Each structure stands twice: as structure tokens, then as C-alpha cells.
Amino acid sequence: MSLGSLKIGGILLLLIFCSLEGACSEEPQVFKSGTQQVSLLELYTSEGCSSCPPAESWFSSLKDNPSLWGKFVPVAFHVDYWNDLGWIDPYSSRDYSDRQRAYATAWHTGNIYTPEFLLNGKEWKPDSLEIPQSGKSVGSLKATLRDDGNVEILFKPTTQSSSSYEVEVALLSCGISNAVARGENSGRTLHHDFVVRLLLNSELVPSEAGIYKAVVMISTSTSTSAKAIAIWVRAEKSLEPIQAIGGWLHENAKNREPGAG
Fold first, then answer.
1. 86 within 8 A of 183, measured Cβ to Cβ
2. Are 234 and 199 in contact (CB under 8 A)?
3. What is the pLDDT of residues 54-109, one digit of tens each?
4. Strand-pair category, 11-15 with 212-219
5. Contacts by 59-62 with C-beta closer than 8 Å and gap 24+?
6. Separation of alpha carbons 242 and 138, rounded Å
């Protein structure tokens, strides 16, 4: 089952923009976590779903949450299974629908729906702006984005084991709007944040020091619409995230410390 991934050995070829003015001449950006788990918050949504706009409005409000990036990383996957209701979601992908189905299969249920929130790989229903924290000590994750076209990703698990790990990298669009002409949301202008526009993954290669590493090659050929990046590690045969990091890219960093909320 495809999850929008591309593996080439231990090398992750990530197409990410760096063509913004001055972006490639800045100091390297560093995103990093401590050892305590940073939560990955996933939203499965669609412009063809009339019950999704309120969920997305709440999701967008997370931009002002002081714990953003430092304690949780949000990503919105637009699914394609509502596209036959009269409106094709331009941000949707079958890969993201397949990803949601893979979770349902792992839970031994065939039920998928929108909007659906997942927190650290488990179904979750928000009731406030507070994102629960697991409190688990899982290991540190670090990514360095350099202006020479390379990104170095390092993961050091708290407990050494024989597990194999993979890293997933998502480019996110924020502050985007779209006028919907047909379907359940006909006549509405919908607003989106943290939308996954590109998702790739790669194996993390272990070292004798117990640190797992992947090198990311940056290309300038990707759309400049990416405003943020999200990176998370999981076990090779599991969708559940172990550790996550993320943040605003380049001028979107707003003078924040890398990886901080």
C-alpha cells in the first residue's frame, strides 16, 4: 500500500523549496526535540465534507497555541474518497486515503470518516485547545536543514533495541483558501492550515553509537507554497509515531527558536 513514500536505501530524496528570496543564504535551520515524546496530531479531512470546516477552523487555531512545534506537531491529510460528490478537493490524494485506511486496518475496523483526528497514532476527539502529552521518554530527534542542499536527520532512541526505524517528512501549506463551487460546501470559501502537500519517507540507518541517521537532499524545484515542515519517526512496520519535530520554514520562522512553539 502506498503512503506517498519513496525509499532509496538510506537516502531520502526530498523535494523542498528553497527558492524564496534569501532562503538559501540563511543560517542552517535546526529542528530538534528533547527525549520526551512530542505528539503528532493528524487530521483527515476533505473539502467535499460539510462537517469538516468546523474541525479545520479549530485546527487552524493551533497556529496561536504556545505549545505548537514544541509539544505537538499538526498535519492535515486531505483524503480523496469524497471527490465523487461533485467537488474534487485540490489538496486530496489517494495516498492519504490509503494512509487512513491503513490505520483502520491496524485497529481491526473498516471505519474511516472525516473529520477524524489522530493523536500519536490513536483516534482522538479534541475538546479544547489543550493537546494531551504522553509523558513518555522516547528519544531525541534532530533535523538540520543546510543551504548546501542537504538535510541531516538524527534519531537517538532512549532505549536501544534491534528495531528498524523510518522517518517521514511532510511539507505543509498554511494560510490557504479555496472557493468551493460544487458539492456539500458549494458557495463557501474554505480556509486551511498545516496541509500536507508532499509526504516522503526513508529508512534510518543505525550507527555503532546507537544513533539512526538519514540524509535529505534538497531540490529547488518544488513549489514555494510550503510554509512549514513536519518530521516524525516510527518503527518500520508501524504507522504510530515515536517522536516528532517541526517548524516554520525560512522567513516563516518569525524569529522563533528552531523546534520551539
1. yes
2. no
3. 999 999 999 999 999 999 999 999 999 999 999 999 999 999 999 999 999 999 98
4. parallel
5. 59/193, 59/194, 60/191, 60/192, 60/193, 61/129, 62/129, 62/131, 62/193, 62/194
6. 7
